[in-house]
Design brief:
single chain
Length: 192
């Protein structure tokens, strides 16, 4: 009986802490976003603003596509790990967790994602693994445009441009093949 009362008291304190954090975290995030805007306001005011309609429209289109694509990719990867979320649920988890990236310390967006995904029944290890796979996939996707414009950035690599444009993405996709990824995961886990 005493153990149950102690457990209830601990659960009650935990619930109160969660309620406080529910309101405190958005305030902290708003504070840090506001502070960054305030600290950099002179740069914003002094910038030479010029808008070209085609480029502006393309940037909105690509940003909107990215805004929808990232939760879709994570949800797809999560589904292959055996944890199904609707697009709306995946969108809520990813977008709310992304707000935490503005809090100092790069880990908060991942901690937030673990917490938010846990509310939908996704275990911590699955969230961590799928977030890592999502990050690798998005990194590989960004390699193609990066390599495409590499010769403009580094003209000395111009003669290797086409070779790298083919070989690096192929090697990267081989590296994330489940057989290769599982081999390295097992090997590294034995060493740890």
């Amino acid at each position: 009986m005493r153990l149950t009362a102690t457990k209830r008291a601990r659960d009650s304190r935990l619930q109160r802490a969660v309620q406080v954090l529910k309101y405190l975290v958005p305030v902290v995030i708003a504070f840090f976003i506001g502070r960054v805007i305030y600290q950099n306001w002179q740069e914003v005011r002094n910038a030479a603003w010029s808008f070209r309609p085609i480029e502006l429209s393309a940037s909105f289109l690509l940003t909107g596509w990215w805004f929808v694509l990232r939760p879709r990719v994570w949800g797809f990867v999560l589904d292959h790990f055996g944890h199904k979320l609707t697009f709306h649920q995946a969108f809520q988890v990813v977008r709310k967790a992304e707000l935490s990236r503005y809090v100092p310390g790069t880990i908060w967006q991942y901690v937030s994602r673990i917490y938010l995904a846990g509310r939908y029944g996704v275990p911590t290890h699955a969230t961590i693994a799928t977030t890592l796979v999502e990050t690798v996939i998005l990194f590989l996707a960004s390699l193609i445009p990066a390599l495409w414009f590499l010769s403009e950035t580094l003209p000395s690599l111009n003669r290797y441009h086409l070779i790298m444009l083919w070989i690096i993405p192929i090697a990267a996709f081989v590296a994330i093949h489940p057989g290769v990824l599982n081999f390295w995961a097992k090997r590294l886990s034995r060493r740890l």
